Give the backbone structure.
Amino acid sequence: MTSIAINANEKKIYGTSFNKLLVYDFDGVFLKEKVYSGIFDAVLALTDKTALLKTEFGAPDASGKGKVNQTILHILNSDLNVTDSMPVRSTQVINGSAAVLGFGIDFISNVNNQSFLYYPVVYREQISRDTLFSINNNQLSPTHKIDFGINDRLKEKFLISSIVRSRNYILVSFIYNSVQHQCLIDLRNKSFVTVKEGFEDTVFNTGKVKLRLWDEELDEFYFIKDAMEVHEVIDGLSQYDNPVISIVSLK
């Protein structure tokens, strides 16, 4: 699997395997699949529908002399057919060069029946892509700009890899001077905290952890620890067991 999305309204689990979309129920029973042309960045569960995010590389630009990478969000119906599409991003690139995203990136968050999307650009460009967009009537509208004061992200080795939002918080994951950081913003009072290499684990006291979004409406996040790191503080756990997921609430 290259990406997984859970559509709670439909009670279905969607997974992509390169150019194939697989559908399961909540018991893990296989329901159906569909094969498309090309490889997808991710499958996404929006508030009321399922979508596929796809980047087409090396399309001719308006001048016909250069190339652009075009990222498109494809909306699916219950038969997994594309019913609508919307442009997400178009990035000018140099002929013969390319950059692709890794797996496990959070693109979407859903709050108050509203879907929010952030799509990072890993291609080498000076500007910093720092805006979270909402999806309205199959169009993207800027809602939150996270300004870190970076004028040249190449010089400062800066890249925002993810921006997600819960009811009261925005969580930004980024790289600065080649080191992973996270910034947590409280939307109620505009206060924020930025940490280097993750937040301090005060549950198991195992050092730094990277938070990821769990439940947007409840302001819940989670982090993952290998069993080897926590088997001594969790009864009945062996160092050879599966990783442990811990869910945390923010107040």
